[in-house]
Amino acid sequence: MGRYSSTFSVCMRRAQRMIFNHPSITRFPRYFSCPPSPCFATKSNPKNDFITWNKKISDLVRSNRITEAKDIFDNLKQRNTVTWNSMINGYIRRREMAKARMLFDQMPERDIVSWNIMISGYISSKLIDEGRCLFDHMPDRDVVSWNTMISGYARIGQMDEALVIFNSMPEKNVVSFNALITGFLQNGNVKSAIELFERMPERDSASFSALTSGLIQNDELDKAVKILLKCRETEDKREDLVHAYNTLIAGYGQRGLVDEARRIFDQIPFDHNKRKGDARMFVRNLVTWNSMIMCYINSGDVFSARTLFDEMTERDTFSWNTMISAYVHLLNMEEASYLFHKMPNPDTLTWNSVISGYAQIGYEKNGDYVGAIELFIEMQVEGEKPDRHTLSSVLSACAGSTALRQGRQIHQQVTKRVIPDLPVNNSLVTMYARCGAIVEAQTLFNEMKSQKDVISWNAMIGGYAFHGFAAEALELFGLMKRLKVLPTYITFISVLNACAHVGLVEEGQRQFESMVTEFGIEPRVEHYALLVDLVGRYGQLEEAMGLINRMPFQPDKAVWGALLAACRVHNNVDLARVAAEALMTLEPESSAPYVTLYNMYADAGRWDDAAEVRDVMDRNNIVKQTAYSWVDSAHSG
Q: What is the C-alpha separation between 83 and 255, in angstroms, rounded?
């Protein structure tokens, strides 16, 4: 029965579409399932009908559903100016000025709003001449009409025209002055802006903010300070000034002038007893504190930022997130976590910041990434919904800890909760590749098609190389170059790693040279370590030593460790001593180079040299680490 009922419904819907789409039938909006209500005819209560349908059109316009709005508009038997204005405004929002003008010209009568929205639309679309033409033909103008034209001319730098309009105004308001001041400052005329500001009969918050922001943009911060100080003498109780002072603090901070920013901050009184909602008090508000804290953080002075944060009697989400993000940036997860758990209502940004911090610290310090995964679980228990950034960070943690099972669970959440973007897809490919699920990584990589970037390619090539699929890694790298995707230094780390896995010494050397000559990438210590490992592992120890000597910077433990390992394989004791001594200097507390060198001397029967190594180790109080063993014999005892 259910199947036949469903089929009948489908047939009915098709029939309705055929009937309503027939040219002889009057068309009504598609969401009507019955004949139009009396309000179309506007017989019962025209006023209520207008309000209802105008609101419907306005809502559809705001939702960018312009076609549906036009359907209703076309089928209304009566319209008022609000109806026409709503529809015109819809086209203006979409920059469809020709359609907006067509409706404007068809209007049986217009009010001043009709003219103003058309002029504003032309100006927003950078059609100033069309806007001026309408302005000149207006039967009546209000202050909005004049101000719109002033702003339009100021925006395109025609300040002479803006000034003509301003001077012709029968009546000016504070917005008129603000628009002209902003125009002067946008066009670098600081002197005229200040003169006009001083002539203003009244000022509002926008006046102070416009002047301060404009002076900052013109690098006239000291002038802004003097003007605000003068205003304080006569308008001390206005919170409008606080907004301007806040802007000035941020301006100094953006230029790294933290001491000057603090001087401005200290000029604003700190009133512990200010009542919430009291807008007439010139005292620090939340934005003041947050701006100064941000100045300190941007300059790297997290200690001063924290001191100020602790002095705050009231904090908002921005205050907490700013401090937490600062500690995350420093990978100080102990303090970040402490603040996070003290924060009253963490939002998604807070969770994301701390989770990404744990994921990053796992990578930087070779950790187990457990903090990121545990916090993600806690986030879900608390009922906070993860977004793309959350899921991407947790996938990075799963990749770092090779937690394939958990990574697959996160993948399921990605499928259910979000439409994966490029960073999420890259995180998925990286996670599967690092965890050794190469087939799944390759499937995802292929599904990305043209939506790949260099990170996608690096993830897949790196996965192949890391797990020993050298041929596949090199083949994919070749395809990457053929498709004109520019490799990065990370790409070549994977390529050299792939060459090392299968002993392609000449290919590795060629790729190393190509990195420099073809792609202009300066070799890093990681590239040298891999190349030393590659040539040394296959017996070219002198070549490996030559590479180290030609390095433009000091070799690190990875480079000397690669050489020492190669010397161990090929029993080159003399070169091993050079590498071991370098490692002893770089890692004075590590027993590994001592034990390796001792064992090599023992294998070669050079017991005096072996004993000397043990004596040096004892004198330096080096404790043998677990997993390193002495190769002793009766002779050594």
A: 50
pTM of the model: 0.71
Cα–Cα distance for residue pair 210/69, rounded to 1 Å: 37
pLDDT tens sequence across 416-465: 888 889 999 999 999 999 999 999 999 999 999 888 999 999 999 999 99
Report the alpha-carbon distance of residue 222 to residue 211 in Å, rounded. Answer: 13
How far, in Å, CA of 357 to CA of 348, rounded? 14
Query: How confident is the model over 72-95, as a mean pLDDT?
Result: 88
Quick one: DSSP state of residue 624?
A: P
CA pseudo-torsion sign 593, 598, 600, 606: positive
Query: Residue 616 and residue 359: Cα distance in Å, rounded?
Result: 40
DSSP 483: T
Question: Tens of pLDDT along 378-429?
Answer: 998 998 899 999 999 999 999 988 889 999 999 999 998 888 899 999 999 9
Return the structure tokens found at 523: 């070799």
d(CA 192, CA 522): 52
Cβ atoms of residues 210 and 181 within 8 Å: yes
CA torsion angle 259 263 268 272 (round to 10): 60
> At residue 36, what is the residue type?
P
Kindly list the distances between the CA atom of residue 245 and the CA atoms of 195, 276, 519, in Å, as whole numbers in the listed order.
20, 20, 49
3-state secondary structure of 198: helix
Cα–Cα–Cα angle for 514, 520, 525, rounded to 5 degrees: 80
Q: CB–CB of 314/298 below 8 Å?
A: no
Distance CA 491, CA 477 (A): 8
How far is CA 45 from each of CA 25, 27, 40, 164, rounded to the nearest angstrom? 27, 24, 11, 48
Residue whose tokens read 């200290």 = 266
Closest by Cα among 586, 605, 585, 583 to 596: 583
Band of residue 367 on the pLDDT scale cut at 50, 70, 90: low
